[in-house]
Write a structure and sequence with these properties.
about 0% strand, about 130 residues, about 85% helix, 6 helices
Length: about 130
């Protein structure tokens, strides 16, 4: 199977940028409250490990999704990505969140991100397919 690695890197980059907007500009405070961490806790941690690790994981997700998608068009890629994000990732988070007694707000923020993330990944992979 042929994988377009340039498309995989672009898809991972879109995921990374979306995460910055989603968890930074759009839902930063709501996410922080729902996840239960303070301003101080939000500022700590090795940012190189957090951001570098996030990008590597986005590369892994994009590459594995490219294998699943094969040769498709952009619209089909976006549809399959939305389905994967909502029904695979979102539903899986939902199961964990129910047993961990996490809030609906946190579920909607995180599940919403991953639904859009995989929609973008599928769109980009399909467009470059």
């Amino acid at each position: 199977m042929e994988i377009n690695w340039l498309a995989v890197v672009a898809a991972a980059a879109s995921s990374f940028v979306l995460g910055g907007v989603w968890y930074g500009a759009a839902f930063a405070k709501a996410h922080q409250r729902a996840a239960g961490f303070s301003d101080e806790q939000a500022r700590v941690g090795n940012k190189a490990v957090i951001f570098g690790g996030s990008f590597i994981l986005a590369l892994i997700a994009s590459a594995s999704f490219a294998v699943f998608l094969g040769d498709i068009d952009a619209a089909t890629g976006a549809l399959y990505g939305a389905t994967a994000g909502l029904c695979w990732v979102g539903a899986s988070f939902g199961i964990n969140y129910l047993f961990e007694y996490r809030s609906l707000t946190l579920f909607l923020i995180n599940g919403g991100y991953h639904t859009l993330q995989f929609t973008l990944i599928g769109l980009i992979l399909g467009a470059w397919g």
